[in-house]
Amino acid sequence: MNANRKYSAFLINVGSCSDRFCSAYGPPFTVERLFARAGSIDLLSGVDLVATDDTLARTGEIKDLLSAHDLKAVSVVPDHFTKPEFKQGAFSSTDARIRAQAIEATTRAMDFAAEVGCDLVGVWPGQDGYDYAFQADYLTERDRLADGIRQACRHNPAITVAVEYKLKEPRTHNYVNTVGTTALLVQEIAEANCGVVLDVGHALLAYESPAESVALLHRHGGLLRHIHINDNYRSWDDDMIVGSVRTHEYLEFFYWLRRTGYDGWVTIDQFPYREDGRDAVAESAAWMDALEGALDATDADEIAAVLARKDGVEASRLMRRMLFGDGRGAHGMERTCEPILASTSR
């Protein structure tokens, strides 16, 4: 592993998870066991935590477990998405008391993060949105959303508050839904410690090119502060093993992280329902390391030259060489499309 690569995973991802059909696909794990499983993955050097009430009550224990397994707390995520009181929105709720609870959940997570040596809180306002026409006041609720996150940012300017977007789920329409919407929101919030979490699976779901999303966030103020990584088929947030579906897009994604100078953490955020959680996370980390290794072995000037030519065939050849070497087949001949083109031209 390259020493400059910083890979993390959500602690809960190395355990067992549930979906709306099955409450648990595997055995439960204690927090101690989850840390041990995460610590056993050589390519991981950090974990991300969800600020549940139980986690917040165990601050000292969490600090000890981080130290015992030589792991860094990379980000802390306040729980704005599992509690029923937030069912009609957290920051954007029509109820001022609920909005205050959303801000308090964020500031508590910020305080906890500071305690465990973490400088980033990831906010995913998954319940802030709507399901039906004529259900929402789009202007007022977006004002409340921006104002609530702004207030949280001011609680501790030393802690970055990074906003994560997702097109849909649990609402049919989420307010923070695309890279452009999120960049506009962060610019409206206008706090130096506010930025964006780019979840690659969410970008794919929104039919974005994750690499282009990285470039856009860089172009519009260096807004990228954290990355969640997983894979899917674009129709849903499948949360699959990294690189197992969108391999070529991941090559481009890691290239643009380098091109834009991103030096933060990359956190595995997946739900291995039927696989062993620890093994699935380890496989994602191995894919990431292999994809970055392919970039290490490729001349950056060669990539720049291909981009300058804007030729799809050249782009395909570049990806094939990066993934499979010089592209020579079983007979020692380089595989190109030239024989096919020749036969169809006659």
Précis, in short:
With 346 residues, this protein is α/β, with parallel strands linked by helices.
Ordered list of secondary-structure elements with their pairings:
Blueprint: E1 7-10, H1 31-39, E2 46-51, H2 53-56, H3 59-68, E3 72-78, H4 96-115, E4 120-123, E5 129-130, H5 138-155, E6 160-164, E7 173-174, H6 179-189, E8 194-199, H7 200-205, H8 210-219, E9 224-229, H9 247-259, E10 266-268, H10 277-296, H11 300-309, H12 312-324, H13 338-345
Parallel strand pairs: 1-2, 1-10, 2-3, 4-6, 6-8, 8-9, 9-10
Antiparallel strand pairs: 5-7
Helix pairs in contact: 4-5, 5-6, 8-9, 9-10
Q: Any idea what the radius of gyration is? A: 21 Å
* Biggest beta sheet summary: 8 strands, parallel
- CATH top level class name of the largest domain: Alpha Beta
- List SSEs in N-to-C order: EHEHHEHEEHEEHEHHEHEHHHH
Strand content: 5-15%
Question: How does this model look, in words?
Answer:
It contains 13 helices and 10 strands. The chain is an alpha/beta fold. The protein folds into 2 domains: 7-297, TIM Barrel (Alpha-Beta Barrel); 304-345, no CATH class. An 8-stranded parallel β-sheet has the order 3-2-1-10-9-8-6-4. Helix 1 (31-39) links the parallel strand 1 (7-10) and strand 2. Helix 5 packs across helix 6 and helix 9 (247-259) packs across helix 10 (277-296). The longest helix has 20 residues, at 96-115. The protein is globular, with a radius of gyration of 21 Å. Residues 337-346 have low confidence and may be disordered.
